[in-house]
Amino acid sequence: MRTKLIIMAVLVAVFGLVYLFYGLNFKFFEFSMSLRIPKFLAMLLVAYCIGAATLIFQTIIKNTIVTPCLLGMNSLYLLIHTAVMFFLGSASVFVLNKFASFMLDLVLMGSIATFLYSYLFRVTGHNVLYVLLTGTVMATLFSSLQNSMVRVMDPNEYDALLSSLVASFNNVNSDILGFAFIVAFVLSIVFYKDLKLLDAISLGKEMAINLGIDYDKVTKRLLLGVALFIAVATALVGPISFLGLIIANLSRQFFNTYRHSYLIAGSIFFGMIVLIVGQVIVERVFVLSVPISVFISIMGGGYFMYLLVVNRSRI
């Protein structure tokens, strides 16, 4: 296992160096690095947040073909940005100032997720399936409200809105990036003790309780952690729906173990490799004409169909 992790870490380092230095004109070294390093760090952070959150989410739900998108976080992100543009206009500080926009996304998505899912866990007796069903309904509601506002929006405002609705690493703000790293670091410390219980939780509720774990409280905290990690990644670059599905399942197939310390690390490394290679293709082959989220959606759709066929007997 450790050898595989070392190989993946080396691959991340190699692809990272390729991304940072390929085609570099050393006459403009400082300027080029000021553009490439923030994007590279953003890819590492997004892979960390989505890779860990998706694998934890799949273990809690006990299903390897689901993603945290079922909690409605992506739809909520689209609704927040559309509502800001619709009610405040393109001259709003939440549109022009990236730090204010990031804070708005983080606060609203984090607080709504915390309040909503804490309430749902309490009223449903910590039933995860009810929470999932409610998340799916909420996602549909958020999408319907967002589509309704888009239909009556001024075309110029809609044109300005489009760029924020598509995941992109091309406009990462270094100030936001530093704050996002701090938030992710604090969340990692807060939820570290719960992460160590994932191996036991994967055995099932009854077995976990027999091992002395307060199953309901731990799964509730972990699900809130998943929502907050997804909020950080989405607020930083936008919604990337299929990334978590791809990298979590690649990690499970590659490591083929129950130990979540390896699975989570593998998912994060796979996420870094996918994002770095994808961004190289976007910048060098398609000259930034196609966002990376398009490639990930195409790959993720095909991979999802493959997983459905392979796991059809267990669905």
TrEMBL record:
Transmembrane segments: 6-28, 40-61, 76-96, 103-121, 127-145, 176-192, 222-250, 262-282, 288-309
Alphabetized GO MF terms: transmembrane transporter activity
Coiled-coil segments: none
GO annotation, biological process: siderophore-iron import into cell
rRNA-binding recorded as keyword: no
Its membrane topology: Multi-pass membrane protein
Subcellular location: Cell membrane
A Gene Ontology cellular-component term: plasma membrane
Keyword tags: Cell membrane, Membrane, Transmembrane, Transmembrane helix, Transport
Family annotation (Pfam families): FecCD
Main location: membrane
Family: Belongs to the binding-protein-dependent transport system permease family. FecCD subfamily.
PANTHER family for this protein: FERRIC ENTEROBACTIN TRANSPORT SYSTEM PERMEASE PROTEIN, PETROBACTIN IMPORT SYSTEM PERMEASE PROTEIN YCLO
Protein name (Swiss-Prot/TrEMBL): Iron chelate uptake ABC transporter family permease subunit
Natural source organism: Campylobacter corcagiensis
